[in-house]
Amino acid sequence: MRFNYRLLLLILCLCAWGVQAQIRTRGIDVSKFQGNINWTKVAKDSTIQFVYVRATEGTSIQDAYYKTNISKAKKAGLLVGSYHVYSSKTTAYQQMANMRKLIKKKEQDLAPVLDIEGHHSGRLYMQRVDKLLELMEQEYGVKPVIYTSEKVYKVHFSGKKYAKYHIFIANYRGYPTTRFTLWQYTETGRCPGISGNVDFIRIHRNHSLSDIKMPKPKPKPKVEDTTAKGK
After folding, report:
1. The CATH number of the domain where 70 resides is what?
2. Is residue 43 part of a domain?
3. What SS3 class is residue 117?
4. Is residue 52 included in any domain, yes or no?
5. What's the pTM?
6. Which of 3, 28, 48, 167 would you label with 39, given CA atoms 20 to 30 Å apart?
7. Which residues pair with 183 in a beta bridge?
8. What is the pLDDT of residues 116-163, one digit of tens each?
9. Contact indicator for 147, 165 with CB cutoff of 8 Å
């Protein structure tokens, strides 16, 4: 049987293209723990297209680097979004008030993230979580993305009630076994412009950044000019 080298080359090219397509859909998330970031250098890495920036936590904690990070990352050409770290000790209204002070809708390219860490598993207070998700949607005009571990997802968010939410899974050991849109696959990534480790994010192959982008503002209705009428 004659070996078809052209067919093999085509298959290899398609495989390489598929790998590259996956790599090109990654991003990072940052906080004060990364310190001062050179966003110009970060943006030179063509595989990094977006960044989620830690903004707030609970009722009163605000990340000291948030304003600088969100502004400079955006200026460098990256799509930006913000995340709030959930607290089980304060009300949804108190947490929303904290977010509202810092996270401005007009500065966001991506839907906001509600970060629910794994240690909350036994004391989430789901009524509070639901109310906070509701308040975030009212404030930013889009359903928030839910960030959590696979364990917490399976216990609290796998039902039909949350089917319309995009899920952001943290799993550093392997490919998630739950549904997800975003996957935080490592906390020890290295990136030019950032000293030390940084979290890297991939997008599920069936999704794209457009799925989590902020909705475009509706155009204002035209007001008819009646000043010339009747003359």
Report:
1. 3.20.20.80
2. yes
3. coil
4. yes
5. 0.85
6. 167
7. 169, 202
8. 987 655 678 999 999 999 999 999 999 999 999 999 999 999 999 999
9. no
